[in-house]
Design a protein that fits this description.
Chain lengths: 80, 291
């Protein structure tokens, strides 16, 4: 199933965050729990993990971009 | 210090589905967590373990500390059913050690002490978990403090938060000496329970001030100590003056242990309830060995 992974709301009141670094590349298969990308909020750099097994299809944001909560980050394929 | 690059040791993992599972439970039971309300950086780590620190007495604090992300505002009346729902959450999560804190409620005659006591008793009755409460200063009111002490939590904590010199800037509605007096009172009156405090570094304090604070706290008889890096919630809050290195944290830990604390957690990401169950077990073990 094709899904679009969006910027999560990592903390109360967060409206956007900087995408610091991709930990995956297009075409890469990852397991649940694998670190997908680093994003910086006021208090920390969060390494956001995959919520399920997936294959990264297309990255939709660049490192350094400020991405709004809910905005697309990448497209992926999941098993279901 | 605006836009200072975060050091590697402030990188944390975050899994949305794990966080959601804990917070869906809190939402269903109409409970607040300090993890979410304070924007705790450890939220991913604790959610992975199915853990959370609950914040009772609403989500609006009557004080407005310049380092804290919890909302300042008009508080709501205490909810008499909150202790029952809190115990249900502790049971559902399977916590063996529950940590409960609150917003400061200077508007209530006892500062919320009776609600703390009800929560401790209900958690113990319904779950058998050990309980740690992290209380405000309750304005130093002995009767209110006695109310909490009499509920027999395993740990009573009250945070000194920062060094003496920085109170006016960071904690204008609190008093350094009063917080120390609260710790001393808790230690003198508690019947076998441990007394705990926590403070932040990175607000601009000097090493000798930190050591003075550690000595002052230890002189109250306080048993457990947690130190963590101050992280500014927004640019509107007191800015971070410095990212203190893990090596310096270790140095402070060794200093505190040399003064006789039973357990010390000193780490950039440590918060009041960080590894709280482990700290209690370490303190119990040391106390038993000393008998």
């Amino acid at each position: 199933m094709k899904i679009t992974v969006t910027m999560p709301e990592l903390k109360k009141g967060m409206t956007s965050a900087v995408l610091c670094r991709w930990c995956v590349e297009e075409g890469q298969k990852v397991k649940k729990g694998f670190e997908l990308f680093d994003t910086e909020t006021e208090k920390a750099v969060s390494a956001v993990e995959a919520e399920e097994d997936l294959t990264v299809v297309r990255l939709l944001a660049d490192e350094g971009d400020e991405v709004a909560v809910g905005a697309p980050l990448f497209e992926a394929e999941t098993a279901e | 210090m605006k836009d200072m690059k975060k050091p590697d040791w402030l990188r944390v993992s975050y899994n949305m589905s794990e966080v959601r599972s804990v917070y869906d439970l809190a939402d269903r039971l109409e409970l607040n967590t300090v993890c979410r309300e304070s924007g705790c950086p450890n939220i991913g780590k604790c959610s992975k373990c199915g853990s959370a620190t609950f914040m009772i007495l609403g989500k609006y604090c009557t004080r407005n500390c310049r380092f804290c992300e919890v909302d300042h505002g008009v508080p709501v009346p205490p909810d008499p059913d909150e202790p029952r729902r809190l115990a249900e959450a502790v049971k559902t999560l399977g916590l063996s050690h529950a940590v409960v804190t609150s917003v400061t409620r200077d508007d209530l005659p006892d500062g919320g002490a009776s609600v703390f006591a009800d929560c401790v008793r209900e958690i113990k009755r319904a779950t058998g978990a050990t309980v740690e409460v992290l209380i405000p200063d309750l304005k130093g009111d002995g009767a209110a403090l006695d109310t909490v002490i009499d509920s027999d939590p395993e740990v009573i904590g009250h945070n000194v938060e920062t060094v003496r010199r920085l109170y006016p800037a960071a904690r204008p509605q609190a008093v350094y000496e009063r917080s120390l007096a609260v710790l001393r009172y808790l230690k003198d009156r508690s019947r076998g329970g441990f007394v705990k405090t926590a403070f932040m570094v990175g607000l601009g304090e000097k090493e000798d001030e930190v050591k003075e604070l550690i000595r002052d706290v230890r002189a109250t008889g306080c048993d457990l100590l947690t130190l963590g890096q101050y992280l500014a919630p927004t640019h509107e809050h007191v800015p971070v003056a410095e990212y203190v290195t893990p090596v310096t944290f270790e140095k402070y830990k060794e200093y505190a242990l040399s003064l006789g604390f039973l357990s010390v957690t000193a780490h950039p990401l440590a918060r009041s309830s960080y590894m709280a169950g482990d700290m209690l077990r370490e303190a119990e073990q040391k106390r038993n060995e000393a008998k």
